[in-house]
Amino acid sequence: MDQRQPDEAQVDPGALVVPPSAEPSDEEAAELRAAVTEPDKVLRIATMVRELLDETRAAPPDERGRVMLRDAYEKAVAELSDVLSDDLKRELEQLAPPMGEEVPTESELRVAQALLVGWLEGLFHGIQAAMWAQQMAARAQFDELRRRSLPPGMQGPPGTGPRQPSQDESSGPYL
How far apart are CA 84 and CA 126, in angstroms? Predict the structure, then answer.
């Protein structure tokens, strides 16, 4: 069934995660944006696949229902492929190869759907981790810019903001 070569490059599962100590370069930021072009579509498909998995657990489908589930599964994989970067698309193809023309068994459907749901959850966690890392890098950059813009003597410990003069240091008749 799977005709991939064993020497085919493997995708690093942490490829979306940017370490919090490093600011992403313009190239890395563009890569993160290009990883998933339509996150809302991915979320809708993931919700649908999860619901299909729950339904197959609740009520075993008959032969016609299994054919419909196979078609829905393959359509979901095809739709996901349209909105993913090339490396994620290859990863998805390795994980979710086409089921073929024969009627899949209930257990084949469950395993395929569970793999897809698990992969999608991993994708979401990777995206969340990348977003968190970008936010932390942006915050660190903002804090550094703010620290540099303060006049000398107004710098307190990190995170405390500018130092306020005490009552003894203040000048003028105001309290």
Answer: 14
Predicted structure pTM score:
0.58
pLDDT, one tens digit per residue, over 50-69 is: 888 888 888 888 999 999 98
| Domain-located, residue 82 | yes
Signed CA dihedral, 68, 71, 73, 75: sign only: negative
**Does 11 fall in a domain?**
no
| Domain carrying residue 43 | 31-149
Which residues have a Cβ under 8 Å from the Cβ of 68 and sit 6 or more positions away? 61
Q: Which residues contact 13 (CB under 8 A, 6 or more apart)?
A: 122, 126
